[in-house]
Amino acid sequence: MRSLGKHFLAELFGCNTEIINNVELVEEHMKTSATLSGATIVQSVFHTFSPYGVSGVVIVAESHLAVHTWPEHDYAAVDFFSCGNLDCETAISNLRLRFCAERFKMKKIERGVLEELTRRKEDFFI
Questions:
Q1: Annotated catalytic sites, by residue?
Q2: Higher pLDDT residue, 126 or 37?
Q3: 3-112 — its CATH code?
């Protein structure tokens, strides 16, 4: 199946609460994971919630790697969307290791499946 991109959705359970509630560590691990995938980092933005939790995104030339953590549940949700030839699974495996997740679930979704697209490129250039 040919598509414009791939989107990996991961749920990490049993994470280390202190790690996933530390915005500096979360950002560091996210950037390292993006680099391990072969991505080109453009920018990152991270935020700490009160009383706890971290959200952030690493914008990469090939799309993005995002996270939201719930330390009170030892849980992190991660998504990695890539329009390039990146090793997203390696990035997510690294986050699983760095967040000390006891278990995880992951699914891959093909985005922009070319056979399902109806508009042609020439329709945009009249």
A1: 63, 68, 83
A2: 37
A3: 3.60.90.10
